[in-house]
Amino acid sequence: MTTLVSAPASATATRPRVIFSSLCAIALSLISFGVSVPELPESTTAEAARGYLTDNSAALRLFGISMAACAVLLIVVVGQLRSLMAAAEERRGSLRDVAFGAGILCAVWLLVSGSFHAATVFDGIEGLPDEIVLSYYGLMSVGDTLGSASTFAKGALMLAVGLAAVRTRFLPRWLGWLSIVLGAMALGGGLGVVDNPVTGALWYAGLIGFALWPLLIGVTLLVKSVKRA
């Protein structure tokens, strides 16, 4: 009798999911670096707001769509990370839940902030009173405020993944330590109550680090999946 030896069914089922999540992480990072909002005018009059929204309607529409895409991609990535962390941690910790919860909060920020910026151009401002135009314009400031508050969720996500990677090595330890550093920088920037160069630098470092972090995660998981194939 001939016995065929093959990879476990769980491993063959998991590999495509890891590859898909890796590609999502890479796409998330690439989109994050390309997303930007046109510079706001210094004047906040109804006329200036109407002109800004009209002139930048295409860019704001693209921003809203990109942020929504980032939210979906991030949910896929943190879902996969949670599964990998659960398999590595077994029953020894709850870092996977912290990472997943923080990732969902980040996804909500992306979706809501993008919606606030793009709501006006999707609905159109033709014929709207000045007061309504200004209220739409003000929503963008609320979206930016949510972005500042999301720094804590970004930091918690990267810290939880980093600590789990260092402890269980489900990711390379260098990536775990880097995640811890980036997470601490994000939290340090968010904790800056007084405007000063240090917390400002940390905030921007956390912002750029969070955009770069999914790329490192995606490439690492993709390389590991290819090596196991």
Provide an overview of this structure.
This protein has 229 residues and is mainly alpha-helical. The protein is 82% helix and 0% strand. It has helices at residues 9-34, 46-55, 57-89, 95-123, 130-168, 173-190, 197-228. The radius of gyration is 21 Å and the shape is elongated. Mean pLDDT is 81; it is low at 1-13.
Secondary-structure map with pairings?
Layout: H1 9-34, H2 46-55, H3 57-89, H4 95-123, H5 130-168, H6 173-190, H7 197-228
Helix pairs in contact: 1-3, 1-7, 2-5, 3-4, 3-5, 4-5, 5-6, 5-7, 6-7
What does this entry show, briefly?
The protein is mainly α and 229 residues long. The protein contains 7 helices and no strands.
User: Strand share of the residues?
Assistant: under 5%
Number of DSSP helical runs: 7
**Low-confidence segments, ≥5 residues, pLDDT <50?**
1-13
Overall geometric form: elongated
Task: Jot down its keywords.
disordered N terminus, 229 residues, 82% helix, 7 helices, mainly alpha
